[in-house]
Amino acid sequence: MEEPHTANNSDHPKFALPVDSEHKATEFRVYSVAAPHMRAFHLSWISFFSCFVSTFAAPPLLPIIRDNLNLTSTDIGNAGIAAVSGAVFARIAMGTACDLFGPRLASASLILITTPAVYCSAIANSSISFLLVRFFTGFSLATFVSTQFWMSSMFSAKVVGTANGVAGGWGNLGGGATQLIMPLVFSLIRDIGAVRFTAWRIAFFIPALFQTLSAYAVFFLGQDMPDGNFSQLQKSGDKHKDKFTQAGIIAASFGLANIFSRPGGGIISDIVAKRFGMRGRIWTLWTVQTLGGVFCILLGRVGSLSVSIVVLLVFSLFVQAACGLTFGIVPFVSQRSLGIISGMTGGGGNVGAVLTQVIFFRGSRYSTETGITLMGIMIICCTLPMLLIYFPQWGGMFCGPSSKGTTEEDYYMSEWNSTEKEKGFHQSSLKFSDNSKSERGRRVDSAPTPSNGTPLSHA
């Protein structure tokens, strides 16, 4: 058996970390910044973090942006969907870009390409321009793909799950950190002397600059693989140079399903809600996601390539539709903290992907087929908590609305205290309460609304 090449092998390049025969690190030292392994780790999560900050920089400042641009609740909702949709389309191509050009160049290029959208957020002057900058900024979240690719290129099977998990998790923290960063930056700029409608615009230069610097850091300080960059290794013949037409069309078909299945899930959610209200949305999400788990189990059990492709496509349809159905419910959880809820939901999906990789596809504990089967079982199990989702004004999967007569106004006004209500901060939530009465559906009983249009509250 060939002896693994480590840092102690005199006839091979010396590395700060012990490595295997592919020169992938066999240890994960989070406090180290040694090149190339740990440097790649820190560059990947920091750049991914910066993209999260940019993408979710708007929600914390929405009250000011809304007033400045005269945005409606629909405008804000559409912009939020646009930010998520941008990442969907970009991720389709990101894996292929990593295969062709390497994670370093692919990541740095995407970050730089999307940076102008972040800068342009400062000059948005209408609902359309606001939606567009959020849409194109969202493309940057596809760096999740390059982050995972990069870690898999740098770390051996023994620790790749840890490297992927930590890099993805720390990057996702940007979605929460921006909830603190942007209000603080806005306050500082306003205190310096800028009026608030100018302060929020200037504030966007901070995440834009952060994203720009992270892109240059990845490009100039990073390295694709332990032994060098893709271009160098391809020239020397140490790495095969793929062609675009051979970059994984079958695998890409899973992502391409996003083009219609994810929007389709959102459309189905709205259609079902017209008749069955919120309870219909929840039931549909549970059904679709459970079926996705069933087809995932089948995918791990079939032995034919042609059948596998068919099952994969069907599985992808249900999975992506479930994503759209999920965001058909998210806007109703909270109006005051809609940005936080949306960010946590979107980020949680990425965390789930990382955990799945660590649990089922790390090392040789399970075969790929067994891992896929177990993943399907996990999908079904993770869908079960939906049985506990309950809105007092509308009900849940098995229960109707609260017997106390809780109304939409009661639910959304509970997020505001009396002082905030006196200042009128609750007005947008009050309007949303009225508009959300449609979630009662035509077939579902809910809190009554009197003839004057104001919901009654019963003791």
Could you walk me through the main structural features you see in this protein, from its secondary elements to its overall organization?
By secondary structure, this protein is mostly helical. Among the domains are: 34-231, Growth Hormone, Chain: A (Up-down Bundle), CATH 1.20.1250; 395-440, no CATH class. Helices cover 64% and strands 1% of the residues. It has 18 helices and 2 strands. The protein has helices at 37-55, 62-69, 73-101, 103-120, 127-138, 143-154, 160-192, 196-203, 205-221, 230-236, 249-256, 258-301, 305-326, 338-360, 368-383, 408-413, 418-422, 427-435; strands at 390-391, 395-396. Strands 1-2 form a two-stranded antiparallel sheet. A hairpin with a 3-residue loop joins strand 1 (390-391) and strand 2. Helix 1 (37-55) packs antiparallel against helix 9 (205-221) and helix 3 (73-101) packs parallel to helix 6. The longest helix is centred in the middle third of the chain and has 44 residues, at 258-301. It is globular and about 70 Å long. Residues 421-459 are annotated as: Disordered. This is Major facilitator superfamily (MFS) profile domain-containing protein. Residues 448-459 have a biased composition (Polar residues). It is a multi-pass membrane protein. One of its GO terms (biological process) is nitrate assimilation.
